[in-house]
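Long-time lurker, first post. I've been practising inverse folding by hand and with some scripts of my own, and I keep getting stuck on stretches where the structure tokens seem ambiguous. Below is the full token string for one chain I'm working on. Before anyone asks, I'm not after the true native sequence, just a reasonable design that respects the backbone. If someone could post their per-position residues I'd love to compare against what I wrote down in my notebook.
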């Protein structure tokens, strides 16, 4: 497949699925299998992943730029008690994923090499979780550091390919009684430090990322595809969460999960 088209497809998938609760890692794994040329994708996979994740992190910052500015001003001035509590909740939410990510890095990496059966099963689990969250009653609770840690556990579980990070964290927040809009806001903001931390780690300590013979122009095209798609998806997702429309994604995850399992056994045979 044309390298430009390949990066555009992967960029759009990353931009959409990073924010809508259908698992970006699961969909990228499916896309890589369907696109073929596995050796080429594996060779450039690390650099492509870094670039696309950087694009969605920037998209999150653009969408929530006012929130971030107010948060920083409040903390800097010493008058933003709510902002400090929110920032502390974000820091606490990182703990489970960081511990598991560092302790089981090799085992986690092995789950992203053609594990379509795992992706399919996890997509079905994501659909079930979204269904539970969609039926939860709406409350107006704030995100506290304690809630942040519990939501962080959901984010840790979403390391599995096929478990949607946004789906898991938003669902956990809603089931804890957090206001839906605040749940979506926290879900998208809490991942920014993790993404930049992961990018820094990959660039500094990953030999594959530094030595990958990747073409700059196709990567740039993939970056912008992921960035602009991410902005649209993030904005759209906030509206859907507020309107309790998560069941749409329950249906989608169920269908794609079943098809992925079928695809696994088809390729395996």
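-- Answer (accepted) --
I ran through it position by position. Result:
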């Amino acid at each position: 497949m044309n390298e430009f088209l390949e990066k555009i497809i992967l960029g759009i998938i990353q931009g959409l699925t990073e924010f809508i609760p259908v698992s970006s890692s699961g969909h990228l794994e499916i896309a890589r299998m369907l696109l073929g040329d596995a050796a080429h994708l594996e060779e450039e996979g690390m650099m492509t992943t870094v670039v696309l994740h950087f694009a969605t992190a920037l998209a999150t910052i653009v969408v929530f730029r006012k929130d971030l500015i107010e948060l920083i001003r409040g903390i800097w001035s010493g008058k933003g008690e709510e902002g400090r509590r929110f920032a502390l909740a974000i820091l606490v939410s990182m703990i489970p994923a960081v511990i598991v990510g560092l302790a089981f890095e090799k085992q986690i990496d092995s789950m992203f090499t053609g594990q379509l059966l795992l992706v399919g099963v996890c997509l079905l689990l994501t659909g079930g979780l979204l269904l539970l969250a969609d039926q939860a009653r709406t409350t107006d609770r704030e995100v506290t550091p304690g809630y942040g840690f519990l939501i962080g556990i959901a984010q840790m579980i979403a390391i599995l390919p096929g478990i949607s990070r946004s789906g898991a964290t938003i669902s956990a927040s809603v089931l804890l009684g957090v206001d839906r809009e605040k749940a979506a806001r926290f879900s998208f903001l809490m991942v920014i430090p993790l993404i930049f931390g992961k990018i820094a780690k990959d660039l500094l300590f990953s030999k594959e990322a530094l030595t990958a013979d990747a073409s700059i122009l196709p990567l740039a095209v993939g970056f912008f595809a992921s960035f602009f798609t991410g902005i649209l998806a993030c904005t759209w997702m906030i509206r859907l969460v507020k309107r309790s429309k998560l069941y749409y994604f329950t249906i989608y995850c169920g269908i794609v999960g079943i098809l992925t399992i079928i695809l696994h056994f088809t390729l395996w045979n």
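A couple of notes from the structure itself: Residues 37-43 have pLDDT under 50 and may be disordered. The chain has one domain: 3-268. Happy to go over any region you disagree with.
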